[in-house]
Specification:
single chain; mainly alpha; two-stranded antiparallel ribbon; 2 helices; elongated
Length: 78
C-alpha cells in the first residue's frame, strides 16, 4: 500500500482504498445482490438476476464501480 501511495503521489494519480471487509467478490456486478460463497467457487452465479461471471472479474467490476461512485450502486439513468 505504501508503494502505491508513493507512485500515485509521484504521478499525480488518485488512490482509492476500499474498506478491508468490502465484499467485492460476493456482490453481483449486475444487480448488487450479495451472495456469500466459499473461495473455492471460481464462478459467481447470481441467484437473483442469473448473471454468471468469473469471480475475479466480478470483483474487479465492483471495485471499479466503488472507485467511480464511492459505492457499488450504479448511478440513476434517465
Amino acid at each position: 500500500r505504501r508503494q502505491l501511495q508513493y507512485k500515485c503521489e509521484r504521478y499525480g494519480a488518485k488512490l482509492v482504498v476500499a474498506d478491508r471487509f468490502f465484499p467485492s467478490s460476493q456482490l453481483c456486478s449486475s444487480c448488487g445482490n450479495k451472495q456469500p460463497m466459499p473461495l473455492s467457487e471460481r464462478v459467481y452465479d447470481c441467484g437473483c438476476c442469473g448473471n454468471k461471471i468469473d469471480r475475479d472479474w466480478n470483483a474487479s467490476l465492483n471495485l471499479e464501480r466503488y472507485n467511480e461512485y464511492g459505492s457499488t450502486r450504479k448511478p440513476a439513468e434517465g
